[in-house]
Prior knowledge:
CATH superfamily of the largest domain: SGNH hydrolase
CATH topology of the largest domain: Rossmann fold
Oligomer: single chain
Order of helices and strands: HHHHEEHEEHEHEEEEHEHEEEHEHHEHH
Largest sheet: 7 strands, mixed
Shape: globular
Number of strands: 15
Strand order of the largest sheet: 6-7-8-5-11-14-15
Number of domains: 2
CATH class of the largest domain: Alpha Beta
Structural class: alpha/beta
Distance between the termini: 54 Å
Amino acid sequence: MLATTDCCRSMAAAHATLMHPPPPPAAIAKHSATRSSSWKILGFLLAIAFLVSCFFSSQLGYFHGMAAQANAGDPLDQAGQQKRIRKVSGEHVAAQYGDRNSTSSSKAAHGYAAAFDVGRIAKRCDYSSGKWVYDPSWEPPYNESCADIFKGWNCIKNRKCHARSHLQWRWQPTECDLPKLDALAFLTRFRNKSIGFVGDSLNRNMYVSLVCTLKSVARGFKKLRQFGADRGVNFVHYNLTVAYHRTNLLAQYARWKAKTPGPLEDLGYDDGYRVDVDVPDNKWIQAPRVHDVLILNTGHWWAAPDKFDPVSSPMLFFEDGKPILPPKSPEEGLDLVLKHMLHFVDAKMQSTAGIKFLRTQSPRHFEGGDWKDGGQCHRMEPLFVGEVDRFFNGQGFNGEVRNINKHLIQAVKGTSFHLLDITPMSELRADAHPSISAGKLHEDCMHWCLPGVTDFWNDMFFALFLDLDNYSTA
Length: 474
């Protein structure tokens, strides 16, 4: 693992090279010797200044976080931000970002405005539209000592160079405030209830965030793995269970190989994956019966050609036990799975007052290549809104996020599901992934550091739940 200063240096250098490649030798030759010398001296001084500031801010931030009076924040990092922060209406706002860090305009341009025209929350605040505000006094709801944090996501323990400073940004909706999740209020409100997260590892990211938040105040808890859950925790004094069910596609799927003559074999298929669009994965098939609140997600695996290669191992969709002919594309198969799975939950949910959310896509932020091709995520601060489209315009390494969301938004219409739209706030946080600190052979630019961005997903989840709860009792 790289030391903190090496991490800062390598990330900054790699990102600078990626965004501003060096000029060709012919161009350099055109400069006079005097000007070349001056630039070299200036570059050397700037490099030294950057390394010194990076070293002291990261080291000071680390030891401040371990100290008892960490509530005061990191004074060195705060001082370093003074030149680009201004006081506006009693709030510290990043002047460098301003409205360029706001999602309101980009959401309308990419179809997100339709997300909250669904169900009973249409008249509530749109927590997904807003901007990231620099706030050095902001503190995460738990710390790096939470044992539930997957090792690769614990960016503070892994000494990612800006693991603490990246937590000094909070989400500010345009039309309202997003309350920080009150763990005691949450435990009390969900006494004798059960909450289930169903989906891929990004939903585990969110599950861990909630569990760590609640453990920070709960007196007693025990591990619980029931009804197919991959993991779970029961908060004993409140009899609240929070569980995570791992499933990639929501639907049941398995490897398929041609054996005897049949309709797919006649079309030339000899290998692939059978996806039963109307059969839930066994790992969560009991979830609607045992949970009072469900948060579902799917999407990343639908755009994974390394797993479901359209030529060598395509998705082959089945319904009522028979292959769907003519064969469907992955996008058509996703629509069928969403239709059947949401209907399944509506029909099987134990409580008539149960709340069901479908979470939108969590964005990836690979630059310079995809995950297996040397892709990187070395940003040190949130993106400008103008930079977001370059990541998510439907092309390149990260473009699937908005394509998948179109299907998710359409799927909830006419159902009792509510959309948990975490995409706009997350698209801006290219700085909040584990990156090289995850300790993998490739950089992790998909999952999120914990504490981190997924804490705000849970803030939004609880705020929307309370809005719905107040609406139903009004």
